[in-house]
Design goal:
Strand content: 35-45%
Number of strands: 27
CATH architecture: 6 Propeller
Number of helices: 1
CATH class: Mainly Beta
Distance between the termini: 39 Å
Length: 368
Amino acid sequence: MLGTRLSPFHGCRVTLALAFFAGFSSASEPPQNGGAESPVVKQEFIFASAPFQSCHASTIAEVNGEFVAAWFAGDREGADNVGIWMSRLTEAGWSDPQEVAVGQAEDGRRYPCWNPVLFQPRKGPLVLFYKVGPRPSSWWGMMMTSDDGGRTWSTPRRLPNGFLGPIKNKPLEWDDGTWICPSSEETPESPSRWSVHFERTRDGGTTWERSDAPQGAEPLDAIQPAILRTAQDRLVAVGRTRQGRVFFTASFDGGLTWTPLQRTTVPNPNSGIDAVTLRDGRHLLVYNHTLRGRSPLNVALSRDGITWTPVLTLESGLGEYSYPSVLQSADGLVHIVYTWWRERIRHVVVDPEKLDLPEGDTQPPAAD
């Protein structure tokens, strides 16, 4: 149970601490969380104890005014007993975590589960995407649905060969109901090659189409995009790289084709991010504002999805605070869930009206 035994990640706290100080300078620190006018409305852990050693890669969705969160958990990332766990937030608080999916293969062997993605389309049931397989280079996509807000789930079904579904972050639903899923691939050789692509389904996940984001003049090892809608017909996707900066790519035809990958100036320590387009037209990014380690965890705002201004620090202590998932709820608040030390999942609620983006975006300070 968490809280009664040490996670295997305790042993790397010294390493994380050294990485934190090496990769983050006070000159680059975004505004801190705190004070009477703090935009942070709530901070809480989704669970205090649970029957697993380690957890990671959380996701959150809103269903009829209630919230559902999911993550993968087990002995450690990549262990065969890693499954998808879930909790629901009601007026009584977060429910006890329940395992809702395991990586049972056709040959009877159990494989680890990875990177759940919850998605509530405008019409239809709640959808849970996740991956199953021994490692990212050989995993496959799975999905299941819930008609009752995550209380019960359909039988899992495997996506067609060659399609993985959304790899970390939620799909964007186009005007005609098409789901545009941000995805990526990692090849098996060492070091692996990373590439970004997008998968589209017009029928709720039965049939799929794919479009790749090509490399630019400077090749980037990039994965795990998040999609923003920056204009009526324009999309921008941002995501993780090995090159120390968040990447971006744009589409001007509803996700059918994408521009070559380019760097932004936002630092990235090879860690997952997430982003959302707010109803007031601004875009909000949750990320680690550092080149090394996975602390601090920060929020930035943008008007175009490419140039970002840091506006809030969610976590700044030693440790790992990573792999955020973000959404704007029906009441206008922003809900963020993320990994806390690989031991718990934290839920933070932010009022975006209290996040100030000065006229004329400013470049984020470099994290040297």
